[in-house]
Amino acid sequence: MHARTGIGYDSHRFAAGGPLRLGGIDIPSDRHLVGHSDADAICHAVTDAILGAACLGDIGRMFPDTDPANRGRDSIDMLERAMGRVRQEQRLRVEHVDITVIVESPKIGPYRDAICGRIAEALGIPAGHVNVKAKTNEGMGWIGRGEGLACIASATLMP
Ligand code: MG
After folding, report:
1. From the CA of 1, how far away is ligand 1's center (Å)?
2. pTM of the prediction?
3. How far does the centroid of ligand 1 lie from the alpha carbon of residue 10, in Å?
4. Domain of 14?
5. Does residue 75 surpass a pLDDT of 90?
6. How far is the centre of ligand 1, averaged over its atoms, from the C-alpha of 6 (Å)?
């Protein structure tokens, strides 16, 4: 019974107009993230972390941005489908997910519990097995200038 770990990273650019879709919830904001799907960077990083831990490739291979079916796609649906593959093909379950969001604004803290709950629901695990942390980039670089946000996630999977 060996644990397996995976990491995921994602970033998306901001554009004018809210709300900010992040971690499967809509956060009040005057900006949103731009991407081929709904650009939910938390869901994308977590999806890559669980696919990585299961040695099932990555989100880009599973949901190519050249496929019109993935345009505007709900990333919670992508996470659930990836989890389905992890269960079916590798007989693995998620034990724990840890997420770091790097963003200057808005503040993620007030929405932390809601995000944990939504991600946990998609993975079929208790909310207490998902952790979300938020940091600023101390004003440095493209994140510091508010051009976009980045997210890093790790996942621990068990048989
Ligand atoms: Mg992405």
Report:
1. 32
2. 0.97
3. 5
4. 4-158
5. yes
6. 17
